[in-house]
Amino acid sequence: MFKNLTVYRVGPGWAANSAELEAGLDKMIFVECGATQPVSAGWAPPRGVKHAPLVESIGGQWLMKLVIEQRVLPSSVVKRRVDERAAQIEQATGRKPGKKQQKEIKEEVVLDLLPQAFTKQAAIKVWLNPKDRLLMIDASSPAKADEVVTHLVKALDGIVLTPLHTAQSPAAAMSEWLTTGDAPSGFSVDRECELKSPDETKSAVRYARHALDIDEVRQHIANGKVPTQLALTWQGRVSLLLTEAMQVKKIAFLEGVFEGGSAPKKDEAFDADAAIATGELGKMIPDLIEALGGEHQPGVPALAA
User: How distant is the alpha carbon of residue 122 from its chain centre?
Assistant: First the structure.
């Protein structure tokens, strides 16, 4: 259901119910790229069924999905066409096109090629916890998360979203856990880590499938290297990779979490998976925030139901 999470705090000045949220997203519904349109982004049903709601409310959690479609033009193809046209102009006029004309040629080439280009789509899951006023984005990079935030702010009047900050930075906390060998309550340190030098050399040491409670790791930290990511397991139920930027990556639900009970029908599987995933992660995220010293800015009143 979720592979990565970037967490945002919803500002106190915005309140809405799921119907109002649906109406806001409907103003920016996803439409495929036009013939000469390089990229298109908009909201689509998270259930993956046409004409289904844009906001799924499951167990008090609101789920959404932003779809981004892009026409793919290989740079080598564009360059070859630009060079061909530039050569034709030089042959006809006796002089090479200047920088300004080269730019115009490239724009014309791109416009000509776009209708023939293949498209690729990416779907980014979005989860809003209205009670705790937290927004989680399943994006592997800050740039993708920022893109989702931009589209949400455009669609929803008055909403303010800020990255969640903790009292202790993830890098400082991870250094402490690795140095002392004491994981925070509810968590255990796993066997993957990256340590990086903060100076201009950016030298890095990576451990994979390797014990981390060793003198070598502690010595790297003593010498100034900073943990940029660390694998953790929460309550023996969820494994994750915490980064220095407070991103949660490589989320995996461990054996037994999705087991129990009869297998749901196909049309019920989405609801079941969403309920379990948000239920587990909805408990894990506060524990992670607490492990990092709590939120830097105190919580705010709940959203309207």
Answer: 12
Residue reference for tokens 């791109």: 110
- pTM assigned to the model: 0.84
Measured CA to CA, the distance from residue 53 to residue 63 in angstroms comes to: 10
What is the 8-class DSSP label of residue 182? -
Q: Residue 52 carries which side chain, given as an amino acid letter? A: A
Nearest to 73 by CA among 110, 40, 44: 110
3 state DSSP class of 35: coil
Segments making up each domain of the chain, as ranges = 5-72+118-163, 75-115, 170-291
pLDDT in tens, 112-162: 888 888 899 999 999 999 999 999 999 989 999 999 999 999 999 899 999
Handedness of CA 219, 197, 240, 207 (dihedral sign): negative
Helices (H), the chain: 18-26, 75-93, 99-113, 142-155, 170-180, 215-222, 266-291
Q: Which amino acid type is present at position 119?
A: T
Q: Cα 11 from chain centroid? A: 20
Tell me the C-alpha to C-alpha distance, in Å, between residue 297 and each of 69, 165, 226.
Answer: 36, 7, 25
- Cα–Cα distances (Å) from 9 to 131, 188, 297, in that order, read 12, 26, 10
